[in-house]
Amino acid sequence: MFPTAHFGLGTLMFFVSILVGVPMELGIFVVIGSILPDIDFFLLDRKHFHRKCLIHTPIFWLFMIAVLSLTPLAIVGLFTAIGVFSHLILDTFDWGIMWLYPFDKKLIGGTLRKTIGKEKNFMGHYFSNKVFLLADMILVIFSVFIWAFILA
């Protein structure tokens, strides 16, 4: 999905966590986690497909969470993990991710990938798909209203 959808879903989960009594300082890590896997997009050159990067695999994040669980930051790791796995689940729908890495490097999921078959035109195909575009817009609109409510 596009980063705005990840941010929107992270914001929605952040808001729900506040409603159930989670301190805002802790809940914000859901939002951070929801966009964290896309850091690889900025670290790679444009020739590489960032969904096939280690940072877009569940095994990487399970390892990171396990390491954090051994520190006083374990609770931060838990809330970050909620956001990260929401990111990975959303990415499964549009292009797919390597859920079984390192055992299998095949992308699992991927409605858009199956319809166009090439990694080069993700943006054009994503924004021409009414379902993904609508989902993205709804998440963005909700997140704008949520942040306006929280910051007011």
Plain-language structure description:
- The protein is flat.
- The protein starts with a helix and ends with a helix.
- It has helices at residues 3-19, 24-35, 39-43, 58-69, 74-94, 111-116, 122-128, 130-151.
- Helix content is 67%, strand content 0%.
- The protein is an all-alpha fold and 152 residues long.
Topology summary:
Elements: H1 3-19, H2 24-35, H3 39-43, H4 58-69, H5 74-94, H6 111-116, H7 122-128, H8 130-151
Keywords:
152 residues; 8 helices
SSE succession: HHHHHHHH
Question: Which strand-content bin applies to the residues?
Answer: under 5%
First and last CA, distance: 29 Å
Helix content: 55-70%
Number of strands: 0
Cα-based radius of gyration, to the nearest Å: 16 Å
Mean pLDDT: 85
Task: Specify the overall morphology.
Answer: flat
Summarize the structure.
The chain is mainly alpha-helical and 152 residues long. Helices cover 67% and strands 0% of the residues.
